[in-house]
Amino acid sequence: MEKIRTPLDQKKTLTFIKDIYENTIEILEELEIQRETMTNLAEIYMTQLSVKQNDVMKTLTIITTIFIPLTFIAGIYGMNFQFMPELQWKYGYWGVWLIFFLITLLILRYFKKGKWF
Questions:
Q1: 52-83: b or e for each residue (b if 16 or more CB lie within 10 Å)?
Q2: Main-chain dihedrals φ then ψ at residue 65, nearest 5 degrees
Q3: Is the four-CA dihedral 77, 78, 84, 90 of positive or negative sign?
């Protein structure tokens, strides 16, 4: 039986197919590099979002920390007890405002010293 000769049997064709195979491997490796680069870029973006969210949370924490003691004091004075000595004091209203102001300054100073802002 005689062997049928096809263009694939020729040495030139085999060299051409090997060249195509090598080019395909190079393209696949380049695609893998691009995929890794895109993954790294996505991770960097997510990290930046986390940093921004942490800054927002820090700001909200500072605001909350300032207003919690003020709300507590205002709540006590809003209970309308009859026998609170400060209620009969001539400067009671301004005294509470002074306490509010001092507490706010102390908390801000504490955060400034801790380099929160």
A1: eeeeeeeeeeeeeebeeebeeeeeeeeeeeee
A2: -65, -30
A3: positive
Read off the CATH number of the domain in which 23 is found. Answer: 1.20.58.340
Angle between helices 11-77 and 92-113 (to 10 degrees): 150
The whole domain housing 15 covers 9-113
Would 55 be classed as within a structural domain?
yes
DSSP class of 75? H
* 53 lies in some domain: yes
Structure tokens at 105: 């300054």
Which one-letter amino acid corresponds to residue 98?
Answer: L
pTM strictly above 0.85: no
pLDDT in tens, the chain (117 residues): 566 666 666 777 778 889 999 999 999 999 999 999 999 999 999 999 999 999 999 989 989 999 999 999 888 877 777 777 777 778 888 888 899 999 999 999 998 898 877
Both tokens assigned to 12: 């030139």
